[in-house]
Amino acid sequence: MNRTLIVVAGVLHRDGKLLIGQRMADDRHGLKWEFPGGKVELGETPKQALARELREELAIEAVIGREIARYEQSTRRRSPLLLLFHSIDSYVGEPQGITFEQIRWEDPAKLPEYDFLDGDLDFVRRLAMGRLRPFA
Q1: If we measure between CA atoms, which residue out of 87, 75, 2, 4 comes closest to residue 39?
Q2: Nearest to 66 by CA among 38, 46, 80, 82
Q3: Sign of CA dihedral 107, 108, 113, 114
Q4: What range does the domain containing 107 cover?
Q5: Tens-digit pLDDT profile for residues 75-129
Q6: N or C terminus of the chain: which is more exposed, having fewer CB within 10 Å?
Q7: The pTM is what?
Q8: DSSP three-state, residue 35
Q9: Count of domains in the chain?
Q10: CA–CA separation, 40 vs 77, rounded Å?
């Protein structure tokens, strides 16, 4: 039995728009869109991991807020994933796409127009339909 990997993602908002990033062309799943974040390492809490990932990926110091959504995703080819999406209440610094081809602030209703990672699709659909309130 493969160990479940915990993956955290941050939902940054500004003027009603959400920050999304496009993976580098030569990355695994290159040019797919995602919410910034990554794997929780041994000894880290999900919130600690997300703060570290946002520092590495966007060069910001973030205050990690409430959990907006969580779900599991399994495929035959890899370990199951537990995806956790957290609101980012505030941050210091201007987000920079250090590890992304590009970053974009986008209206939640337009997110389904992007080619997101499979793990983000359910979350994106729920955001676009207004079923989730990331900046409540």
Answers
A1: 4
A2: 46
A3: positive
A4: 5-35+46-128
A5: 777 778 899 999 998 999 999 999 999 999 999 999 999 999 988 999 999 999 8
A6: N
A7: 0.91
A8: coil
A9: 1
A10: 20
